Amino acid sequence: MIVDRALEQRASDGNPIRIGIVGAGFMGRAITRQIVRRVPGIQIVGIFNRNRERALEAWRAAGVEEVRTAGSVAALGDHAAAGRAVVVDDPQVLTDAGIVDVLVETTGAVEFGARVVTRALEQGRHVVLNNAELDGTLGPLLHAMARRNDRILTGIDGDQPAVKMNLVRFVRTIGLRPLVCGNVKGLQDPYRTPLTQAAFAERWGQDAHKVTGFADGTKISYEQAMVANATGFGVAQRGMLGGDFAGHVDELVHHYDLDRLLELGGIVDYVVGARPAPGVYVIAFEEEPSEQQFLRLYKMGDGPLYVFYVPYHLCHYEVPITVARAALFDDAAIAGAAGPVVEVVATAKTDLPAGSTIDGIGGFTTYGQCENAGVTDAEQLLPMGVAEGCRLVRDVPRDASLRYDDVVLPENRLVDHLRQLQHAEFLTATEAH
């Protein structure tokens, strides 16, 4: 690693990377604690949360009791120079402050997150995005915006998408061809609700809607859309192949059809129940007999498929690594490469009557599934990140994917405007050919 030495040098020089955090929920609090207590070379200059008390709680959980309020960019700069802990009541204080090198957005909200991230990029901030929901909905456009502004927009090390992308980069560096990027899940049940997940959420101090999004497959769909958009891989079918797999991940070389993988050019996928868990895997291809002999020597198997895996993801522990990669090395842990490859479409969790309103991610009405972007566009499927607040104009049966003509959109949302821009920038150009 070089990140650890670089951060130590920044600390020694008295020149830390200065970051602002937007979102003080479970992850925001954990990131704050990690950086304040354990990471040299990074300084949190301010925290915003829509519930101000939670921002204060994030500082207290890190052992900081004296916290100031900054109502302006100038005040934030004064407090930062003095090394004071700060909360802000307006996220624009963080997005607009030149003293902020990197903005860490960790809300999980699409509409609100879009407003914060677009403003931060326009104002010249690097953005570390712990918001797969936003990335899976508007990532292609936001990553293109970052590149145009010579900024880094990246997902976080420690979460599954970036762990897989780090593996992909490693596999490509040693000369193999990745064909599958997958997650190992312990549970996949699209009909879970905040009621079924309430006890688990309370046990771990998390939000019931958030953990429902994990259980019903929406979160993994967003994560795999991020990986697809970074690698160019699609899905083999709507919802991915998935399925139970009771063996060790090394045995996944027998789970996939090589000819089909080569035909598709690579896929994102998942399995439920494989060992070790939780973790991620990348299945790579090597066709040269001489290279297969080397890999056999190194106990990687007989080929031509080989499994590379990481049996953990440490989320908030690794966020400082991402901050340093962006600020010091202009390197993204994971970023969309071009246009949308895979979208996350809203699918009915139960029979939905006309006139009802769709609730949010991890709710009672819909779950998200991966679908190739070309299909999503051709069938005018409703993205999961757009679905919240939409009113149904016709009945939709359980497990049917919703379409734009099934709903009336809420008025005056930024997400809808940005989706139009994303379509114009990427899919319209594709259709022209």
Describe the structure.
The protein has 433 residues and is α/β, with parallel strands linked by helices. It folds into three domains: 3-154, NAD(P)-binding Rossmann-like Domain (Rossmann fold), CATH 3.40.50.720; 160-315, no CATH class; 342-432, Type Iii Antifreeze Protein Isoform Hplc 12. The protein is 40% helix and 18% strand. It contains 17 helices and 15 strands. It has helices spanning 3-12, 26-38, 52-61, 73-81, 92-95, 110-122, 132-148, 160-173, 198-204, 208-215, 218-231, 258-264, 289-297, 319-329, 373-378, 384-387, 414-432; strands at 17-22, 42-48, 67-70, 85-88, 102-105, 126-129, 153-154, 177-185, 267-272, 279-285, 305-310, 342-348, 366-372, 391-392, 407-408. The strands form four sheets. The protein has a seven-stranded parallel β-sheet with strand order 3-4-2-1-5-6-7, sandwiched between helices. Strands 9-8-10-11 form a four-stranded mixed β-sheet. It has a two-stranded antiparallel sheet with strand order 12-13. Helix 1 (3-12) crosses helix 14 (319-329), helix 2 (26-38) runs parallel beside helix 3 (52-61) and helix 7 runs parallel beside helix 11. The longest helix is centred in the last third of the chain and has 19 residues, at 414-432. It is globular, with a radius of gyration of 22 Å. The N and C termini lie far apart (44 Å).
